[in-house]
Task: structure prediction
Amino acid sequence: MKKKNYFSKITGMGKSILLIVALATASLVFAQPDLNLGLKLHYTFEQATGTTVPDVTGNGYDGTLYGATVGLSNGKNSLILGTSGTDYLDMGTNTGNLISSLTDFSMSCYIWVNTTNTNLSSNGNMIATFSNSLDSYNQQVGYMFLQAKRSRYSITLARYEAEQAVQVGTDVAKGKWVQFTYTQSGSTGKFYQDGVLMNTNEAVTLTPSSLGATLYNILAKPSYNGDTYLQDAQISDFRMYNRAITPDEVMMLNGYSSDLIAAYNGLTLGDVSAVTGNITLPATAGLVNIPVTWTTSLPLVISADGTVNRPTQYDATAKLTATLTQTVNGVTYTLVKVFNVTVKAYNNVSDQLAEWNFAGNLISDNNGIVTVKDVQTGFVGTLKNDARIRTIGTTTQFNVLDLGKGTGYFDMGTEIGKAVYSLNDYSMMSFFRIDDTYTNLNSGGNFIWTFSNTADAGTDKNGYIFGSLKDQSQAVSTNYWNQGNQSVGLYANAPKNAWHHIAYTQTGTTGTVYVDGVKVASGSMTNIPSTAITISGRTGTLYNWLGRSCYNGDAYLQSTLLYDFQLLKFPLTVDDIYTGFTGFDGVSTILGRLNTAYTENPDVILPELTTELNNLNLGDLSAVKSDLPLPLKGILDPSIAISWKATLPSLIDSVGHVTRPNYYNYNDTLTASLTKNGQKLTKVFYATVVVKDGTQYANDLLVKYDFSSVTDSTVTDVAEQHLKGVLRNNATVKTIGTTTKYKVLNLGDSIGYFDMGPEIGKLMYHMNDFTIGAYFRIDPSYMKLSKNGNFLWSFSNTKDVLISGQGYVIASLRNQAETVSYSNWTTEQTIQLTDSAFKSAWHHFAYTQSGTTGTIYFDGMNTTTATITTLPSMALPKSGQLGTLFNWIGRSCYGNDVYLRKSMVSDFRLYKTALTDSQIMDTEMKVKTTIDALNAASAETPNALVPVIDSPYRVSTLPGEIKILGLNGNEKISLYDVTGRQLKIDNPASIPAKTGVYIVRINGYQTKVVVTE
Result:
């Protein structure tokens, strides 16, 4: 045996506990482990005979290749998995007998995933699977696996819901060899990566023998139909032992020398559980002086040289990471060892960090903003949205937090986040009552408490804690749900229709969930808040809520009452929770009181609030022209606070100041909130704010952008109010023509567009009967006209309807359509001509709305009508806005749509009436003569895109027939009836037709014809 000095290391539950051994002599015996002891299966992948890969132990567990190959890859003999997604190694049914014999065991291998792999984050990506079915999802007969996705070991006798797992939580790194080892001794499972213990679970009660003799024993193939094979990757040195190999043996499997292992085991900082001064960080370790470098997770608390800066109020735990480096025969080996160092704060705080019981003496109201102090520390939280304080009971009354039925929640403030950053062993708990009418409890979200570094963990993935009533669980994540997330829970909806209690306690790395004082779930939780969610440079979580999720889109906890949320910096026992401790009477007692109080009176309203509400009156609000005297406190009871909120605060603000709008009268809604002792009642008043004098329109023509009035990039419309728009990106105004000159909008060939400004949006909110139209000319070289987008105009409440669909009016030249929607494409009403607009010449597109009849005019001709019941005045108005904010020519309100390119636009108009056929063609818009003039101007302009020539075609009608003369056989011909329906054409020279009105299109030419009998 080789003799070396060493220290022993005991690793458990994610914390390193060091045994400091006093050395009596300069060296101790280093017992060289035997890595062949208990080795039952070993694939070295050095060679294959045909498709057979030998098990070099000689125990007869040879594998069979299916698609995969073996060979030297990235410096190691490997199982090579291609990109087909079907390659794997079958270890054979005989290996199932080995599985059935294993209790204590180890599984180990190297894994390399190529940088070109694009499927690693998909479900599946198993390195090794042992299963009794290849349809494990439906048959539920049990399996175990080692997984590259999330770097994970898992075992179950059913499906994924019942898995017992140990994991790193992040996908294996690409483009490098990574070594995985999983060991299990009794119910303790340990997961090592590159020789370093990453996670421990002391509650893995299932062993391979629990599965029996597995039928399917495979490398790289999943046991769930549809899951992804491990592919574009290599596996090397796959081993299975019938014992839990030691941490030293794990490091030896990684190629570390005995000197490096001894240095690693011997490296210690002593007792670092309550540091108050600077600490010495060794620069070398071991007898051969292995170099050690240090990094720190909290440099503001402990620097990388050991300098300590004690916090003021809360203890802080920093991760000091030691990297030991040794080069042997030109190969560099590194080992990383992490020490959790707790630095004591100067000031001690109570073990009971926070408690919100919502007692009346802790409630304050400042102009409608209701805040509540916690009992223990004085943290101040704020009621948000429709959350309120509610009183229940008659004999004994309780103030409780009512989260409401919308987006109500309680913001505990940022100060409590500092306490959260200090948590090691801890408890969180609260009483709750979910109404039996609440139907959304099974949706994502429904968090009873949240402590997060971000308001949207789906985007900003940097850690949180939450308790869920959907799952009755506690989750702690270093990142987000799919990376670094750990949870412990019952994974069933919380009970409804009575008061209940949920508590979570953390002891070491064991988390436990209690419901109504009864332990319902327990498991490994190595994500300790003080080290898992702390961020360098921050002092605490910033988003600390009751009733709201840290994921945008998740459900708020609704129709729920909360009482007595507590945060404690020690783990409660079951007796503490159920029977009580100092200051807490116990769950069994308090639940009885709460249920009795709710039965007596579920919603006690102070009579003075009701009296004041009935007395509150603002008089006649049907024609508001001046400021309103809004009372801010009760007239009968001055202790009642009154706050005001208008749906249009730009017209009536919270103190009653009135700003009269331009162009039109606006209907506004004022809501008075009367509060006392946290209780709140509301009353709604409806007001009409009268238009500002001199801003009303006298004529039907509201807007005319003819691009004749341009200053720099600002364009002024030439109608009554002279609204202003802005040329954006590379859009310009150019002049065409020499005899008669026209100013036209040139959209360019990129992302140019014309922003008509927000004022025109105020007009759109009032449109019932209206006309909207513009001239356009599309260059024949433009090839993307068939793509989504190509909007001639767009009036939208949001910049990107894909993100937030809140209504719009649009016209697209892709299908010559006018569309209106309350939200997005799911609520659209559309009228269209189907075909894309013509190119190469000037054309005109107009839309009129008269009652519920919508009509599209093309080149001045009435081409199709439809019933359109969704009017802009109905679909567009949104609370808090006076008009659409995003009003564009040439740009879509859908973020991924194409801009209208290689096009010119002229004479955009908006009327507050539906023009007639003759008004559009001849007297008002004068489309017929204007198109001819624009085409002539383009032909005269030297840089015109394509000169226009007269049409060579002649269209005539006979009884029951439409005839077209001058065709050469290469034309695109379309025929539409008066409803806009496209008709089939067999012989374009002679088209049979019933009596009626038709639109004939031939390339860039269009005409209306009437067929008689």
